[in-house]
């Protein structure tokens, strides 16, 4: 049985992975369609992290609801993801046209919830249905976050750090490579924290040691790496490992001034220049990407100038 489904996945790559697993867990085979009017299920996997993302998610929900209004039979309109976890009760009251709301707190039950709404049984053995280009796929290694940054809502939306078992990740990586994809991009809220909640003591290095030798893997990238977790030991390991590791470092610094970092609840990131220097001492040609917040409460001209100088000096 094919299920025509129109999917909109907003926000980060972790959301995309959630959508792909949901599609693979539906009864029958999910058949992507371009227009919501042609679907039996319209799925919007939302982002609720910052205001523009919230506004985009709400706009997509309203547009989809308008597109299928008056159709008979009407497609099942499903809204999932971070927006639901953050504003679910308010949204349900304001948008009665949505048939099903799915929170990130019940990720494992998403296929079952949709199957129940369709009066079907979920797939007995879910198989991830990829929607990324055929050259790569994301591998989500953990859920949630162990940090308490004051500007961030992720722990309240996604919960505490929950790492996936290493053998499970190796198996999924092998399945990705079996599709002909040759690049795997590891994603988590903080990759360097992987395994810190696991009883077997496996960490990011152990995971990389298991993944890098896999047959068919040509490129392995890491998103996202918290500054405090980028130790000299980890960087030395990555340097010695060589290909297929790609020296692309996505390090969310957020600011450079110690006062602002302390105010943000990120004392562990108090010396961002040292982190950049550590990376470049091992990988002189590394690509380094970061995110920075300006206008944070308490930031004055001297803090902003400090940040500008930091960017100029480290580019």
Automatic annotation (TrEMBL):
Q: Name one GO cellular component term.
A: cytosol
Q: Name one GO molecular function term.
A: metal ion binding
Q: Pfam families under this entry?
A: Radical_SAM, UPF0004
Q: MTTase N-terminal domain: from which residue to which, for each copy?
A: 3-119
Residues forming the Radical SAM core domain are 131-315
Matches recorded under InterPro entries:
Elp3/MiaA/NifB-like_rSAM, Methylthiotransferase_N, Methylthiotransferase_N_sf, Ribosomal_uS12_MeSTrfase_RimO, rSAM, rSAM_horseshoe, rSAM_sf
Matching entries from SUPFAM superfamilies are given as: Radical SAM enzymes
Query: What PANTHER family is this protein classified in?
Result: RIBOSOMAL PROTEIN S12 METHYLTHIOTRANSFERASE RIMO, RIBOSOMAL PROTEIN US12 METHYLTHIOTRANSFERASE RIMO
What name does UniProt use for this protein?
Radical SAM protein
Upper lineage is:
Bacteria, Pseudomonadati, Thermodesulfobacteriota, Desulfovibrionia, Desulfovibrionales
């Amino acid at each position: 049985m094919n299920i025509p489904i129109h999917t909109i996945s907003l926000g980060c790559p972790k959301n995309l992975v959630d959508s792909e697993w949901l599609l693979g867990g539906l009864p029958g085979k999910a058949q992507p369609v371009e227009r919501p009017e042609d679907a039996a299920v319209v799925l919007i996997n939302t982002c609720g992290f910052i205001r523009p993302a919230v506004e985009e998610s709400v706009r997509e929900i309203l547009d989809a609801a308008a597109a299928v209004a008056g159709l008979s039979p009407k497609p099942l309109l499903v809204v999932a993801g971070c927006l639901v976890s953050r504003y679910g009760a308010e949204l349900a009251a304001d948008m009665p046209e949505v048939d099903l709301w799915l929170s990130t707190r019940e990720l494992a039950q998403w296929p079952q919830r949709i199957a129940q709404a369709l009066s079907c049984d979920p797939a007995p053995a879910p198989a991830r249905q990829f929607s990324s280009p055929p050259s790569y796929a994301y591998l989500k290694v953990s859920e949630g976050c162990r940090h308490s940054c004051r500007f961030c809502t992720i722990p309240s939306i996604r919960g505490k750090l929950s790492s996936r078992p290493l053998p499970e990740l190796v198996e999924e990586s092998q399945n990705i490579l079996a599709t002909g994809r040759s690049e795997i991009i590891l994603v988590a809220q903080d990759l360097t924290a992987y395994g810190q909640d696991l009883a077997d003591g496996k960490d990011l290095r152990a995971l990389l040691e298991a993944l890098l030798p896999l047959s068919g893997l040509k490129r392995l990238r890491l998103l996202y790496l918290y500054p405090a977790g980028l130790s000299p030991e980890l960087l030395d390991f990555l340097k010695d490992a060589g290909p297929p590791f790609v020296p692309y470092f996505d390090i969310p610094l957020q600011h450079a001034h110690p006062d602002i970092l302390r105010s943000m609840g990120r004392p562990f990131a108090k010396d961002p220049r040292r982190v950049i220097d550590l990376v470049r001492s091992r990988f002189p040609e590394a690509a380094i990407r970061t995110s920075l917040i300006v206008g944070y409460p308490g930031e004055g001209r001297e803090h902003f100038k400090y940040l500008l100088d930091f960017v100029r000096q480290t580019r």
